Amino acid sequence: QVQLVESGGGLVQTGGSLRLSCAASGPAFTRYRMGWFRQAPGQEREFVAAIAWQTGLTYYGDSVKGRFTISRDTAKNTMYLQMNSLKAEDTAVYYCASAPGGWDAHSSEEYHYWGQGTQVTVSS
Question: Model confidence over 109-123: pLDDT tens digits?
Answer without folding.
Answer: 999 999 999 999 999
